[in-house]
Specification:
By secondary structure, the chain is an alpha/beta fold. The chain has a 3-stranded parallel β-sheet with strand order 4-3-5, with helices on one face. It is globular, with a radius of gyration of 16 Å.
């Protein structure tokens, strides 16, 4: 297998093991089943003092911020920014696709410092080692209405996300905290 396989290619190649994963609760927070099944390595992930974590609700500007941070770290050098896809340059901590795709933790454990790490975890689920090491964090919030629309269409398109249902059903689930990682408003209020 290639060292940095293309995620889209792998999703198509292994379409028999990818499906709309159900939500399961971790500490009262709904997460996708593959994340819950691999929760121990995520929860016990060892952060380093020079780690930078980019924390966002899904579909709130994560990739945009990752690109900005990567450009800043590379002094605006566009050639360096094109060295690899963003998910290779800035691994996603809690991504847990079925094998043979490596998890985010697998990618990060041996990554050189300083590491920039993406997460969608709520602050209470972020591994304690980030807080103990006083790691820097960039947190992004987006207008909840805009976020809801974007996430709805993402969930329709991404066949590993839970089935979104109709727009009306999705809005209700979102407001009741039955979507991945609870509603945006509750997330911001709890911070």
């Amino acid at each position: 297998m290639a060292e940095n396989p293309d995620y889209s290619d792998l999703l198509h190649k292994y379409s028999d093991i990818f499906y709309r994963f159900p939500l399961t609760s971790v500490h009262g927070i709904p997460l996708m089943e593959p994340i819950v099944n691999q929760w121990d390595p995520i929860e016990n992930f060892q952060a380093r003092p020079d780690d930078l974590i980019i924390s966002t609700y899904p579909k709130a500007g994560t990739t945009w911020m990752q690109e900005i941070v990567d450009l800043i770290r590379n002094k605006g050098d566009l050639e360096k920014a094109h060295r690899a896809p963003i998910y290779v340059r800035i691994p996603f901590l809690e991504i847990c696709s079925p094998p043979p795709i490596p998890s985010g933790v697998d990618k990060l454990v041996n990554a050189p410092s300083p590491r920039v790490i993406k997460t969608h975890l709520l602050f209470q689920l972020v591994p304690k080692s980030f807080w103990e090491n006083k790691c820097k964090m960039i947190y992004i919030a987006r207008n909840a209405k805009d976020n809801l629309v974007s996430y709805y269409f993402f969930d329709q398109m991404n066949l590993t996300q839970p089935y979104p249902g109709t727009w009306e059903e999705y809005v209700t689930k979102f407001m009741e905290g039955k979507c991945v990682l609870i509603p945006v408003a509750s997330r911001i209020q709890r911070q």
